[in-house]
């Protein structure tokens, strides 16, 4: 991410020893700022803060509110940014066990549906081990994508899909058919972020 000015120092400090981290990987949430409402993915959380993946640039020192459970906003401040990740310190300690238990209740009420695939035609780069493949992404969903290239796959394995204006997407190659690869993302893209990205691609085209 390109930042136009030097980052501000957050007024909050998180004592990592006092707030042990819970493992909470790939949990969609909403980040509320002074001017926007943006999807994010919470990577881990403690009583005093969390780390999340983001899809738009943010600066240290920003006051934010995190909505992990619908309707429940946790106030905090961005401590640091690194590429497509941020660290947030909460203004007050939170009851993580209660919060996560409530999250599972809310998710259980929702109907589980597979994420729809959206057709796209976007330049893309796929890294498999130390080899780079250049081609096009032909469709995408919150959980995966179809990648097409003129090169042949030398050796399957973990992959990283790189698309314009999105963080690198760590993936597994689930299938190959000729010069097409089917990818499953290690971490989902929130539906709101994906729809916004696809819409931006359509406008640019």
UniProtKB/TrEMBL annotation:
It holds the Pfam family PilZ. InterPro entries: PilZ_domain. Coiled coil: none annotated. Residues 15-99, 111-199 form the PilZ domain. It comes from the Bacteria. This is PilZ domain-containing protein. It comes from Sphingomonas tabacisoli.
């Amino acid at each position: 991410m390109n930042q136009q000015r030097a980052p501000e120092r957050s007024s909050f400090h998180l004592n990592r020893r006092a707030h042990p981290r819970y493992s909470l990987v790939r949990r969609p949430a909403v980040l509320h700022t002074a001017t926007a409402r943006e999807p994010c993915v919470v990577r881990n959380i403690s009583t005093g803060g969390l780390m999340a993946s983001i899809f738009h640039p943010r600066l240290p020192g920003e006051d934010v509110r995190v909505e992990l459970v619908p309707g429940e906003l946790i106030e905090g401040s961005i401590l640091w940014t690194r590429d497509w990740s941020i660290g947030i310190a909460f203004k007050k300690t939170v009851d993580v066990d209660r919060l996560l238990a409530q999250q599972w209740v809310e998710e259980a009420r929702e109907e589980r549906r597979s994420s729809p695939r959206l057709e796209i035609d976007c330049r893309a780069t796929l890294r498999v081990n130390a080899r780079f493949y250049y081609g096009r992404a032909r469709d995408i969903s919150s959980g995966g994508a179809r990648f097409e290239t003129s090169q042949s796959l030398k050796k399957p394995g973990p992959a990283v899909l790189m698309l314009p204006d999105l963080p690198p997407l760590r993936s597994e190659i689930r299938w190959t058919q000729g010069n097409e690869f089917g990818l499953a993302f290690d971490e989902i893209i929130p539906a709101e972020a994906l729809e916004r990205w696809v819409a931006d691609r359509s406008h640019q085209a």
